[in-house]
Amino acid sequence: MTWVIPKATAYGGILLNSGGQVLLREPANHYDGYVWTFAKTRPQGDETPEHTARRGVRGEIGHDAKVVGVLPGVYKGGTTTNAYFLMISDHGHGSASQ
């Protein structure tokens, strides 16, 4: 499926595990004042927003993920504007450590 997502400078994922828990990441040294945040990254080359978001989730949280939707809107971060996909983890079954 092709997802329509707003143009942004970074793309990420709101990632749910099989238990319905939202998986967040803790930025190194609480960058830009964040304690917890969603995984996101900037596109590389001609990468699609979906591929960028999946790469960001894999790199920052360590989960492969399936896109199931798009969060409407664009959200201003400290150094980027961010658009997010709703994703479910391809990892096993729902422990809090996922």
The name of the CATH superfamily reads Nucleoside Triphosphate Pyrophosphohydrolase
Ends: how far apart? 26 Å
Which fold name is given in CATH as the topology? Nucleoside Triphosphate Pyrophosphohydrolase
Strand content: 25-35%
CATH architecture: Alpha-Beta Complex
How many runs of DSSP E, i.e. beta strands? 6
Explained architecture:
By secondary structure, this protein is α+β, with helices and mostly antiparallel strands. It has a single domain, classed as Nucleoside Triphosphate Pyrophosphohydrolase (Alpha-Beta Complex). The chain is 13% helix and 30% strand. Strands 1, 2, 3, 4, 5 and 6 form a six-stranded mixed beta sheet that branches. The longest helix is centred in the middle third of the chain and has 13 residues. The C terminus is likely disordered.
SSE layout and pairing:
Elements: E1 10-16, E2 22-23, E3 39-41, H1 49-61, E4 65-70, E5 75-76, E6 81-89
Parallel strand pairs: 1-6
Antiparallel strand pairs: 1-2, 1-3, 4-6, 5-6
Quick tags:
Nucleoside Triphosphate Pyrophosphohydrolase; 1 helix; 98 residues; 6-stranded mixed beta sheet; alpha+beta; 13% helix
